[in-house]
């Protein structure tokens, strides 16, 4: 019998692949899923000091998804969905959630009202904890949930599955054009701009910033979301070592 052996270069190549696959099994993935019957343009904004992911935005047609990995140590930021986007006369713009007329937001924030998913991800090393939540503090524009997979500890599905555009009170409605259809639902802060509703100045503390009839509209429909600036911190959930966090539009 003739014995064969791998050349040394091939051996090291296979070892490299095996090491990469082993490392990949420990990676955390963020996956954005669109189950809406229309295209959504997800936008991603990092908090200060953290890198922009996926250039900050892209188009996601109905019934498609896109997965990517945050940095392997620490990343925090937010994801929201833009709706009604189009190119017109060489200009890109969105009816809701627009980020300075750009397809790729590259770190810019979005126009309100918008439903937001918030993340603070510590991955690898001695601390492997993903904190996440869904906020309607800045209003609502599209149903959104965050669904963790394969995590340990307290890892609930959170967010707002309801289409609040159908039930949004008249004084909170944002309409397209003049008298067009409802495209978003404003927060009380955005609708009335008072210090009390915006939790500014004297009202900027857990003791003085309180729920209002406007925030309670969102809270009653979607109780697992944050609906005013000093809402319960327990609405941000700490999940240990999840394999994947899915942001799902129209779950």
UniProtKB/TrEMBL annotation:
Signal peptide span: 1-22
Keywords: Disulfide bond, Signal
InterPro entries found in the cross-reference section: Osmotin/thaumatin-like_sf, Thaumatin
Any single GO BP term: defense response
Pfam family, one: Thaumatin
Cystine crosslinks: 36-250, 85-94, 99-105, 155-239, 160-222, 168-185, 189-198, 199-209
Keyword Acyltransferase on entry: no
Organism superkingdom: Eukaryota
Entry protein name: Osmotin-like protein
């Amino acid at each position: 019998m003739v014995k064969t052996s791998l050349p040394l270069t091939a051996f090291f190549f296979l070892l490299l692949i095996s090491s990469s696959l082993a490392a990949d099994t420990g990676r955390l993935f963020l996956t954005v899923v669109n189950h809406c019957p229309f295209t959504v343009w997800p936008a991603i904004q990092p908090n200060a000091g953290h890198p922009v992911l996926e250039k900050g935005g892209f188009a996601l047609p109905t019934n498609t998804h896109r997965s990517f990995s945050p940095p392997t140590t620490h990343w925090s930021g937010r994801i929201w969905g833009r709706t009604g986007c189009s190119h017109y006369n060489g200009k890109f713009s969105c009816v809701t959630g627009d980020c300075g007329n750009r397809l790729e937001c590259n770190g810019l924030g979005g126009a309100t009202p918008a439903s937001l998913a918030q993340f603070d991800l510590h991955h690898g090393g001695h601390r492997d904890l993903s904190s996440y939540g869904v906020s309607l503090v800045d209003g609502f524009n599209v149903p959104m949930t965050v669904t963790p997979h394969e995590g340990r500890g307290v890892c609930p599905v959170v967010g707002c599955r309801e289409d609040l555009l159908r039930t949004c009170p008249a004084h909170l409605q944002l309409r397209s054009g003049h008298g067009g259809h409802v495209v978003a639902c404003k927060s009380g802060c955005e609708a009335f701009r008072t210090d009390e509703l915006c939790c500014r100045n004297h009202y900027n503390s857990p003791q003085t910033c309180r729920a209002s009839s406007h925030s309670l509209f969102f809270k009653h429909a979607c109780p697992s979301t944050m609906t005013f600036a000093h809402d319960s911190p327990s609405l941000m959930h700490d999940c240990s070592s999840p394999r994947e966090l899915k942001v799902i539009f129209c779950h």
